[in-house]
Design goal:
alpha/beta, Alpha/beta knot, Helicase, Ruva Protein, domain 3, 10 helices, 7 strands, 45% helix, binds S-adenosyl-L-homocysteine
Length: 243
C-alpha cells in the first residue's frame, strides 16, 4: 500500500540526516528514497545513522534535479516549515496522509523535503500540488529534517490501518503526471508571451498563480491535450507544438 510513495530529499547537507531519514522510513514501512544532489552520498555517517536501514540507502535513487525525481508522479506534496508568500493549498500531516494514500492506489506519489539550511525554493514548491506543514511552535517551527520525515511517515503508516480494504475507485480521475504538467507550463508561459499577454521579464508572479490554479484543477492528460491545442491555436499554429 505504501510502495508507490517516495520520499524525496532535496540537496541534503548532512549525510547523517539521510541515514536518519532511511531509518524513520523503514520504521514506518516506507522504502522508496530519492536524493536530489545530496552533498555527500554514499557516506559512512549515513550508514551509521541508518542503523540497519541501509538497504534503503543502497536502493536510493539519485537525481540531478527535482523534476527528474518527480517525472512519473501523479501527486506531489512539499513539506514546508514556513508559511509562504503565495498561499498554496496546505494540509496537516493527517489529512495529507489520507490524500496521499488514496492517490497512491493509482500511481507514484512524492513527498518532498527541503534543505536543512533553507528548505525548498519557490521554484521547487511550484512543482507541488499541495504543501504539508507540521503544526508546531509558530516562533520555532522548523523540525530536524529526519524528524519531519518521521512525523509524516508515521501518519502514512497510521492511515494504512484506517483505510477501508478496497474503496470504489471506479471512474476515479487520472491526473496528468509531473512531466506532462511541466511541459504544459512551458507551453503556457511561451504562449502568454507570444500572444502579447505578458512580458517575459515580469511574468513570474503570474505564472506562479497559474500554477496554483492548475495544481488545484489536477487536469487529466486528455484535458492537457485540449489546453495545448487551445494555446497552439492562440499562437496561430495548425499543429500542436511541444516546447
Ligand atoms: N530552515 C528551513 C527549514 C529546514 S528543515 C526553512 O526555514 O525552511 C528541513 C526540511 O524539513 C524542510 O525543508 C521541510 O521539508 C521539513 N520540515 C521541517 N519542519 C517542518 C514543519 N514544521 N512542517 C513541515 N515540514 C517541515
Amino acid at each position: 500500500m505504501l510502495d508507490p510513495i517516495r520520499i524525496v530529499l532535496v540537496e541534503t547537507s548532512h549525510p547523517g540526516n539521510i541515514g536518519a531519514v532511511a531509518r524513520a522510513m523503514k520504521n514506518m514501512c516506507l522504502s522508496r528514497l530519492y536524493l536530489v544532489r545530496p552533498k555527500v552520498f554514499p557516506s559512512a555517517e549515513a550508514s551509521a545513522r541508518a542503523s540497519g536501514a541501509d538497504d534503503l540507502l543502497a536502493t536510493a535513487v539519485q537525481c540531478d534535479d527535482l523534476p527528474q525525481a518527480l517525472r512519473d508522479c501523479r501527486l506531489v506534496v512539499g513539506a514546508s516549515a514556513r508559511l509562504r508568500a503565495v498561499h498554496w493549498p496546505q494540509f496537516d500531516p493527517r489529512a495529507c496522509a489520507a490524500q496521499v494514500l488514496s492517490e497512491a492506489r493509482e500511481g507514484p506519489v512524492a513527498l518532498v523535503f527541503g534543505r536543512e539550511s533553507s528548505g525548498l525554493s519557490n521554484d521547487e514548491l511550484a512543482l507541488c500540488h499541495y504543501l504539508v506543514h507540521i503544526p508546531s511552535n509558530p516562533d520555532y517551527s522548523s523540525l530536524n529534517l529526519a524528524m519531519a520525515v518521521q512525523v509524516i511517515s508515521y501518519e502514512l503508516n497510521m492511515a494504512t490501518r484506517q483505510r477501508p480494504a478496497s474503496p470504489d475507485q471506479e471512474g476515479a480521475m487520472q491526473p496528468a503526471d509531473s512531466l506532462a504538467m511541466e511541459r504544459f507550463h512551458r507551453h503556457l508561459a511561451q504562449a502568454l508571451v507570444e500572444v502579447g499577454f505578458s512580458d517575459p521579464k515580469q511574468q513570474e508572479k503570474l505564472l506562479l498563480r497559474l500554477r496554483r490554479l492548475f495544481a488545484r484543477a489536477r487536469p487529466e492528460q486528455d484535458e492537457l491535450n485540449i489546453l495545448h491545442g487551445i494555446l497552439s491555436a492562440c499562437q496561430g499554429r495548425k499543429s500542436m507544438r511541444r516546447p
